[in-house]
Write a structure and sequence with these properties.
2 copies of one chain form a homodimer.
Chain A: H1 27-40, E1 62-67, H2 71-81, E2 86-92, H3 96-109, E3 115-117, H4 124-129, E4 135-138, H5 142-154, E5 159-162, H6 170-183, E6 186-189, H7 197-207, E7 214-222, H8 226-229, H9 254-260, H10 268-277, E8 286-293, H11 298-307, E9 323-330, E10 335-341, E11 353-356, E12 359-362, E13 367-370, E14 381-382, H12 383-389, H13 393-398, H14 410-424, H15 432-439, H16 441-450, E15 456-457
Parallel strand pairs in A: 1-2, 1-4, 2-3, 4-5, 5-6, 7-10
Antiparallel strand pairs in A: 7-11, 8-9, 8-15, 9-10, 11-12, 12-13, 13-14
């Protein structure tokens, strides 16, 4: 195999390489799809997705193709290899080193080697053309998610999982929703934090009414990513001041979004759990949003600290504000506060707050207070005893299986849910409307900031069906 | 003395008493003042306030009049009585019970009894007419602050202290600013949290550059006030479901603002310290603001829980959202997040966050992280050792004097600063521009919410002088 670089492009041969280079999906492809969607009509918009009837549960296996075998894709493959109900039939990537790491992982598992598609950024089309899959899992750079989901759906695949986020522009989110409806297929965004053990225990408490009526929620992505956004091209983390073609792994493509975009670039780890607790798209919905961004300092400072003031990247003007804070109104009167904080030194925190008329949970200080139930008036309880008491049935049943699954076991559950739904031929517990409405926060927050923090309205991806839909996320201990 | 009730009004004789009753300053008075301000011209607008030349320091005493001797006024009187440099010359209130508590306090101190003005809501005019004061301190209901400050200034008093907030409408804030400029007099809002020990230590760290360049700040007023907003008319706290004329102390007037207004009703405890750290009005300024409010549930639920579903107050529709969250842009590119959360069960927290390019302080979990200085990478330090190391010189010098002064010693410092400035005849360390810009957040947040969370611009009370003014708040250990 000769894999010349990211998406078939060899930066070593690129004499015009810009600092901001990434290889995007071609515009022609996007135009083609847009025409297609337009012509197809929207007759099924907003309807519950029909059962595809492809379920072969119990006893059989899901034939899975994985597109994108970078470090994140390898996590999912590792978890899929541990399962007896998944056959990894095919994998696809354009990066030699990542494919080599993946094939070693598969060899070690003792399972049979999948067919490998590579050599071209559109090699994934050949993977789809083989028509031998029940499901695909996409773990590529952000800008490839929507195009790959769309082509996956168009190829007839009924179960499509994608890493966060769903797409870049608002229009792309609509395209995916309409295509899923048209194809009567299931698109699940792999939002693993919905399965974090403390988050699920708190959701359990919410559903049992312990917090009373919910009034205000907070969450975010507060994670010092400077060592992820820059590296030396060899080691993925904390190794240098390069990004784009000279870098490795996420720094190769992710950092470019910080150059060009100002908004909440990574909202789903925060909003996913909050949306589930608030029954968003199931009797509730997001109605409007406003975002504020600070000045941009952290990434420039990091380049100077790592590479010196004369490093070429020290000239880059990053548009992403160091802290971006977004407020969201819900139609039932709750507010949500989301923060994106990835350019500064700080301990990791998703900053959850779940507040109702009877009390609240705060993630940062690991505390819960419930009026009349907490040990002392107006004094926090250590959250642990509450979280233990309300441990979610999924964790009670599968806790042992999560060991080694990555991200504290969350990754086990998110793949488990996708595979179990595909096996049974039933809707995934997080669906295309969840994916679209959570992920759309990024383009909406960009728009708000572009307009001077203007409040902007939220699209209703369900076309009014949110009033009638029931939330069936994690109702049992099955998946 | 026959004091028939709040501001000379006896609710027991009021057959038309509405649930929403408070006794406001008369419109005629306001109209008179407005005409006066208009005619006076704005020639001195924005100039640094001139020295009034009334300072008699060292050795002499400040002749102080106190308007409003409710529970908060009594705190200040208690602290003033402990000082050897204050003569309380006169006091004024309309409430028999509060005046009786105050005179007992003064008797116990062994100091001479001040002249008492009472019997009429405008009795304070007689206090001012006596022309025997260097300074006045106002601790009345919110709607009386601006009118009393204005009449105090117009009477020739050069040092006017008022409890938070400065006024109700934006126009009132402007009137106070213009009158202070016209009279070359000093108006200090008694924002005590600027003197909280941990807050001052963090400000000290900010000024020494420990946090790097500031990028994002958070603060708020997160305090379960349900037991303050309602009582039984006899005990001030946690005693019943009454407010307005049938209630005692703050519930008598404060709760009415929750009935009629939706906004951040109490921003200054949060914004004051943050504004000092950001040098607001001193090289920086607030430029715009947007507020979001949740539905209103907590106050109604509390009435039902305390008084039953048939209690007359259970019919009241409270406009104040249970959680109001405000974002502010600063001209130097920082953002500020403010929260107001007073209607729900929760442990008290002002929720401070001070974040710069090198690290951050979080109040909630009592933690600080500074890159390269904290013990472990990406792990919080317990804040205590940092706060001890950077203890502010004011606290080092006066810490012992704060004992028993109320609110953990903050109340000592805020009065100390006002009295020391008056003794010396120098500007107060927090001035009329600070008071106006901090307090104006309330009417601006109301406006934003009324307009559907629209971003609204911030007035520049300094008329452009913010570019040239230096921040001299707490630069030494004197005051």
């Amino acid at each position: 195999m000769a894999l010349p670089g990211l998406c078939g492009f060899n930066p070593m041969q690129d004499n015009n390489s810009s600092l901001f280079y990434i290889f995007p999906p071609s515009k022609n492809l996007l135009m083609k799809r847009r025409t297609f969607v337009k012509n197809s009509g929207l007759a099924v918009a907003g309807l519950a997705l029909a059962e595809p009837g492809a379920g072969k549960w119990p006893g059989s296996k899901v034939r899975l193709g994985v597109i994108g075998t970078g470090l994140r894709g390898q996590n999912h493959i590792d978890n899929a290899l541990r399962r007896t109900d998944v056959d990894i039939v095919s994998i696809c990537d354009v990066d030699d080193r990542m494919l080599q790491m993946t094939t070693e992982l598969i060899k070690k598992s003792g399972k049979s080697m999948p067919k490998i598609y590579s050599g071209d950024p559109y090699a994934f089309r050949h993977l789809l053309d083989a028509k031998n899959l029940d499901a695909i899992l996409i773990a590529t750079p952000w800008e490839w998610h929507a195009p790959m989901v769309l082509e996956g759906l168009q190829s007839g695949i009924k179960y499509v999982a994608t890493e966060v986020v769903l797409g870049i522009t608002l229009d792309e989110h609509w395209e995916v929703v309409h295509e899923a409806e048209k194809q009567k297929a299931h698109v699940m965004m792999l939002e693993n934090v919905c399965y974090r053990r403390d988050v699920m225990a708190v959701m359990n408490m919410v559903r049992k009414g312990i917090f009373g009526e919910l009034i205000h929620m907070q969450a975010g992505y507060q994670h010092d990513l400077r060592g992820v956004k820059f590296n030396n091209g060899i080691e993925p983390y904390d190794s240098g001041a390069e990004f784009g073609p000279k870098a490795f792994s996420e720094a190769r493509w992710r950092t470019n979004h910080s150059v060009h975009r100002n908004g909440d670039l990574y909202p789903t780890h925060g909003i996913g759990p909050v949306a589930q607790m608030l029954d968003i798209n199931h009797g509730n919905r997001f109605v409007s949003l406003s975002s504020f961004a600070t000045k941009s300092r952290g990434l420039h400072n990091y380049i100077v600290a790592r590479g010196g003031p004369d490093h070429p990247n020290a000239k880059v003007q990053f548009k992403l504000g160091d802290v971006v804070t977004t407020q969201i109104n819900c139609v039932n009167g709750e507010t949500i506060l989301l923060q994106h904080d990835t350019n500064s030194p700080r301990p990791y925190s998703l900053g959850f707050r779940v507040q109702g008329t009877k009390g609240l949970w705060m993630d940062l200080n690991h505390s819960i207070y419930i009026e009349g139930m907490s040990k002392k008036n107006d004094v926090w309880d250590e959250a642990k005893s509450w979280l233990d008491q309300y441990d979610h049935p999924l964790w009670q049943r599968w806790g042992k299986d999560t060991e080694g699954a990555g991200h504290g076991g969350m990754d086990f559950f998110v793949l488990h849910a996708f595979i179990e739904a595909a096996k049974r031929g039933v809707p995934t517990p997080m669906d295309v409307y969840d994916a679209a409405s959570w992920s759309a926060i990024t383009p909406l927050s960009e728009k708000s900031i572009e307009l001077g923090n203007q409040v902007v309205s939220f699209p209703d991806f369900t076309d009014g069906q949110w009033m009638y839909r029931k939330n069936d996320f994690a109702l049992t201990d099955e998946f």
